[in-house]
Design brief:
alpha/beta, seven-stranded parallel sheet, three-stranded antiparallel sheet
């Protein structure tokens, strides 16, 4: 098993077996993945440096903020009306015959249901997006490979990034956890950031779907600068002051 795969599986195990703030021991992880305790210690140190876990005496716990951001179901029920407006507008930007990339987020999940362009190709690492589009017989759906993160309902890892890097997209639609004047667009984990950065690098037009509550916030890992973004689509609760400020750096669309 490659180290990258093991790190993702460690996150899955801590999150599913123990949950936030409930520790797992080095011994448990060592036995689960059939590697030495020293290897697990190095893995946990790397995950701690990435801001995903917090080391404890003899083990680790999942960082609460990361655990919450990876929980797709808990995020799905927040700001529902705002998310639907954003998703509907984003879907209207897709034109017939285009190749688009949708990362895994609650907003792209809703966007997928609103798509009505004809004969489009969709590349995604989101199981939710695939489910939304399963009856669209005229769509070509390419599912990226990698390790499935259960709580986030996303496929991530080196395999995912390598596949994306060989592709080209007419339009890319991404979610973000933070929109900040200094950091730009950011997300909770380094693993998720890598696949989003790869999509940005391979896209002709880049769109971020972000509720107004994400503005003036910086998450752990940078995804992109404002100069790389064609537009940030948000809801009409974004204040006039915020709109004027951020619109100086990239196009802001309030819906």
């Amino acid at each position: 098993m490659f180290k990258e795969e093991r790190l993702l599986k460690i996150i899955n195990k801590i999150n599913s077996d123990k949950g936030i703030n409930k520790g797992i021991t080095i011994k448990e992880l060592s036995e689960a993945f059939n590697v030495s305790p020293s290897t697990i210690r190095r893995d946990l140190t790397e995950l701690e440096e990435a801001g995903v876990v917090k080391r404890t005496h003899g083990g680790a716990i999942l960082v609460e903020q990361v655990g919450n951001e990876y929980d797709f179901l808990s995020k799905q029920g927040k700001n529902v009306s705002e998310k639907k407006s954003i998703a509907k507008y984003a879907a209207s930007l897709v034109e017939d015959g285009e190749i688009i990339a949708l990362n895994s987020s609650t907003l792209t999940y809703l966007m997928a249901a609103e798509l009505d362009a004809k004969n489009i190709s969709i590349i995604t690492n989101s199981v939710g997006v695939v489910n939304q589009l399963s009856d669209k017989r005229d769509y070509s759906i390419i599912v990226l490979g990698g390790i499935y993160l259960h709580s986030a309902k996303t496929i991530e890892g080196t395999t995912t990034v390598e596949q994306i890097s060989k592709m080209h997209f007419d339009k890319v639609f991404l979610g973000a956890n933070g929109v900040d004047l200094k950091l730009g667009l950011s997300t909770a984990g380094s693993i998720e950031a890598s696949s989003k950065q790869a999509m940005v690098d391979c896209g002709k037009e880049i769109y971020f779907l972000c509720e107004s509550t994400k503005f003036d916030k910086a998450s752990f890992y940078k995804i992109a600068d404002f100069s790389q973004v064609n537009a940030i689509i948000t809801d009409d609760k974004l204040t006039d002051k915020q709109f004027e400020t951020y619109n100086k750096y990239t196009k802001i669309v309030r819906v």
